[in-house]
Fold these 2 entries.
Entry 1:
Amino acid sequence: MRAGARSLSVRPAPRRLPVETPGVNPLQHLFDRNRAWALRVAEKDPEFFPRLAREQRPKYLWIGCADSRVPANQIVDLPPGRLFVHRNIGNLVVHTDLNCLSVIQFGVEILQVEHVIVCGHYGCSGVRSALEDRAHGLADNWLRHLKDVMRFNRRELEGLPSARRFDRLCELNVMEQVTNVANTSIMRNAWKRGAEITVHGWIYDIGNGLVKDLGVSLDHPLQPEY
Ligand SMILES: [Zn+2]
């Protein structure tokens, strides 16, 4: 066999696991839970799923952390269809992240949401990693943005007792991301054409389930632009 021919050889077809056989699918319990949930919802409101299938008209775009303890809809007790959601590690809004920018553009221009909520949380592992000098692999390139937030606010953070520093960095990160949302061309253009959209910065306490408004809401472009 010539060198290189091996890479062109046909790979065996992936083995398909049976999904319908009871006791075989290790995720069967999730399908069971899904079915039970769908039945409960439909029993309570038979029009719920047909209505949602026709369209979504959420008023809120939620930008939150991917942390499993911070499920957007549950925190604010809203059913499907009421939140347009983007989540990533550290609830970051990065100016070159086409994924996040596309969500913001779709939410603002197509769905015409009225509020963009950046919701961080105390105890955020992503934020904690910025305070540590430890390698995490590929994710370090993403977490770098959190180290930037720390650098921007170094003076304030160094003046705090270490126990408070972590919590404050979680808050400062939310504030930074609110600024980043407001500075996107999407938001600036929306405000320029008179759209009434407010960007909010919230933080969620995983210790008691409560959300706090950080008081950094914006309903107009930052001036001067920076
Ligand atoms: Zn987090």
Entry 2:
Amino acid sequence: MSEASTSAVDAASPVAAERLRITEIFHSIQGEADAIGWRTVFVRLTGCPLRCVWCDTEYSFHGGQWHAIDAILAEVASHGARHVCVTGGEPLAQKRCLVLLQRLCDAGYEVSLETSGALDVAAVDPRVRKVMDLKAPDSGESARNLWSNLDHLLPHDQVKIVIASRADYEWARGVVAEHALEQRCMVLFSPVWGKVEPRELAEWIIADKLPVRFQLQLHKLLWNDARGK
Ligand code: SF4
């Protein structure tokens, strides 16, 4: 079925409110943030209104398939993992993502949400651990940061800043200080693969005694960024 005809069916369907457009659901190891290393089911929602220059999931911008939320829950359950990560794209670009998050929490999973920081997170179920980006200048999307989101962060959430240059690092350092980010939740600094030497970023953090957590994306070390890993 073509994308256009699928959308038309969905819009007219009485069960439209129970569906989401999904790029992939897969079972792997969480490669970053607080739940790093845990076996995790990833639910990747289709679509993103941003275009970060270093984006590594451009394949999620278009396409995908409509899935009923019940079917998503059944597939997640089939993998027998305690952790579920809802990601994208930008998952919050589909409003029904909020329903999926709530249903996953109700089912007893440890649920995380990877979000760009450009869309409002206020209505996300408080049981969900938000991993929220702040976009540094070299992403090309820094103007999209929705700063009011900082007021909706809970202690179990995480702010992630992806750093592609020394200028990005200095911007990130300034943002952490200006907003006392480390007092709100964990702050993660992550180098852009191929743009900043990880060791260089680590040494900057040490030299400046920053209250942030350095991270490398474990899945890239393990699988060299293969899709579905
Ligand atoms: S917000 Fe995420 S998915 Fe969207 S363009 Fe940026 S990195 Fe890619």
